[in-house]
Amino acid sequence: MAINAVRSVVPQMKNRQIRLVVSDNSTEAEQSSRLEGFCRGLKHAQIDYLKPPEPLSMTRHWEWILQRSLKHLEAGYFSILTDRMVFRPEALAEVVALSVQNPGAVVTYNHDRVVDHIELIRLEQEVWSGEVRRIETRHLLELARKSRLHACFPRLLNCVVPREVLQRIAGRFGSICASSAPDFSFCFRALETLDDIVYYDKSVLLQYALNRSNGFSFSRGVRTKEAKDFCENLLNGLNPHAPHPDFETINNAIMNEYCCVKNEAKSAKFGEVEMGPYLHLIAYEVTQMENEELKNRMRKLLKHHGYQEPRMRIRVDRKAVSGSPQKSTAPLVILLPFRRLLGHLRRYIQRVVREPKSINAWMLANKMLGVTPPEDNRFVFKSAEQAIAYAFRFPKQKASNDEHIAFLFNDSV
């Protein structure tokens, strides 16, 4: 997977403004050998291949490569690209240009993802406007305390960070991202340190291999090998700073980082976590869990902490209950079988045109006739590679407005 990440960067290094440092933390000798051979085979002056002195946890690896890069490179800006992400064509040049246009600012961006942990592989492409907006960090922290998170939150793997910002954070907190979840540790430290960030409302990255993601595994309630290794490397247990440490969900891990930085910074920018939205978001995560034993345990914890399931409202037709005369439904009864037939036919057609074997046909139709496939997230792909190729060929069209991010600029949260 790391080779795919490298391949997504190399074509975008033509202007010599970009230097790629490939830090190989793999414990599998064959994979390391392939990656090293690939990188050295490129014979590119702007690509460095290196390995840490010993296998490191994700947190220690991120901290090590960032500190080493600050010491040995003269670069003015830094970003992390994980082995489960690739840059869209030409997208890296766009964010580099934005960083140059906004000196000293952290520039963040969105990402799409390939849902490939299931048999029916899907592509999720986010709504985007292409707007470049400054967002006050005080407002983002207000959203965070109410458990309203967004892709614009700076997490190292979705942003370009100036050297001086990394140095300020390290000087203030003793490290850049050393905590249980390094991406959100950096996030909340950056939001405390800065007055604002610059958000580019566009998906620059594409994420895949979700079954290898610690965060995604937690959200499903599945403990993969990577997730188990992650837990074993935690020195202070899981989520010790969270309002309720016993919830084993990804958003509780995020709120753990919020509370940890809040305690470190002792800043007025950090308000108390609002418990209603916090428990509601965790309750939603629990409904998505695949591990029934863990799901039941988390539901008991929710009840123990005072969470109540929303009541379902049933609307009653008072006229029908009171016995008021009703119009004849005979025409509806006659048309119902025909409408059902049309519905079945429509669903069948939609399923056929979105099957994996139809993807190549769409590609050919687009090339020969200029036909564009339906713009939705319901296509099914036979592999992650096919989904990525489709995403690059048929990116989601630009939205006509930026209403989907209006809440990021509205003070009445």
Descriptive notes:
This protein is an alpha+beta fold and 413 residues long. Strands 3, 4, 5, 6, 7, 8 and 9 form a 7-stranded mixed sheet that branches. Strands 1-2 form a two-stranded parallel sheet. α7 runs parallel beside α10. The chain is globular and about 60 Å long. The two termini are 40 Å apart. 30% of the residues are buried. About 2% of the residues have low confidence.
Mean of residue pLDDT values:
85
Question: How many distinct helices?
Answer: 16
Proportion of beta-strand residues: 5-15%
What distance lies between the first and last C-alpha atoms, to the nearest angstrom? 40 Å
> What is the 3D form?
globular
Helix content: 40-55%
Q: Which class best fits the helix and strand makeup?
A: alpha+beta
Q: Summarize the main sheet.
A: 7 strands, mixed
Order of helices and strands: HEHEHEEHEEEHEHHEHHHHHHHHH
Rg estimate, integer Å: 24 Å
Low-confidence stretches are 318-325
Count of DSSP E strands? 9
Entry keywords:
16 helices; 11% strand; globular; alpha+beta; two-stranded parallel ribbon; 413 residues
